[in-house]
Amino acid sequence: MTKEILPKFKRLMPLIPALLLSGCTLDLLDPRGPVGRGNRDVMLLEMGVMLCIIIPVIIMTLFFAWKYRESNTKAEYLPTWDHSTKIECFVWGIPAVVILILGVVCVWSSYYYDPYRKLTASDPSRKPLNVEVVALDWKWLFIYPDQGVAAINQLAIPVDRPINFLITSDAVMTSFFIPRLGSQVYAMAGMQTQLHLLADAPGDYLGQASNYTGAGFSDMRFRALAMNDGDFDAWVEKVKQSPNALDSSTYPDVAAPQQAAPVTYYGRVQPSLFDGIVAKYNNGMVMNKSTGQMMHMQPAPSEAQMKE
Ligand SMILES: [Cu+2]
């Protein structure tokens, strides 16, 4: 019985990895923008370089164990051997070359794909879109300062237009990440981090918090909707229709901890609210983005202050 089944099964074994892979979509390996593609290429290149070591080492380990087995009396036997320049060259030379290659790739990609480096669209007349991102417990607030609107857990972005994200947190530290567009960047209270991304195809991409932050963390996700200009303008109009306003009187409720927060639109946003959120953690000070000077700012109220 076993003798009949085993040879048949062996012939099918190469199909097993294919079955395992068909079940998952690997966002990181299927990017939709230049930064995501660059991240993927660097990752694959580094994996390739490392496999150049791992595969020969595994093969040699098995081969040497088999060749110098106790029962093989024909193999070379050197009980007093203690040095081989040839082996030393391999043992030190190959790792040195690998570290050199990985080092050059690492330094180059750190500068080239620096999240703070500004991007230009294929059509340079397309101005970047500013989006202010606030990480809350456990939801994402996206403020569009130039459009005067905001949304919870939904990010709409026009295709082929650079997006300048300015990121902070009004809760614990977490990380802002849209895997198909590339580069994750930390969100920290009192800090303003930056990220420049560009989507080159319309679509609905997953966005997430990639730092564990407690109870509501698993629902701290959003949809990043990349759309053409007409659809983006329509989206902004739709958000503007919302009667909800985001200002210092409504902000504490918006920022209060909430699990699995639904998508919510705000048709009006108080100007400089983002600066106020940053200023909350810096004794009312915030850096002016155009001049780099520190300026005083009315801190955004917190839930505790409203209850007093
Ligand atoms: Cu880390």
TrEMBL record:
Positions of the Cytochrome oxidase subunit II copper A binding domain: 126-238
Membrane topology reported for the UniProt record: Multi-pass membrane protein
Lipoprotein found in the keyword field: yes
Keywords: Cell membrane, Electron transport, Lipoprotein, Membrane, Oxidoreductase, Palmitate, Respiratory chain, Signal, Transmembrane, Transmembrane helix, Transport
Domain Cytochrome oxidase subunit II transmembrane region profile: from-to ranges: 20-117
Cellular localization per UniProt: Cell membrane
Keyword Transit peptide: no
Family: Belongs to the cytochrome c oxidase subunit 2 family.
Name of protein: Ubiquinol oxidase subunit 2
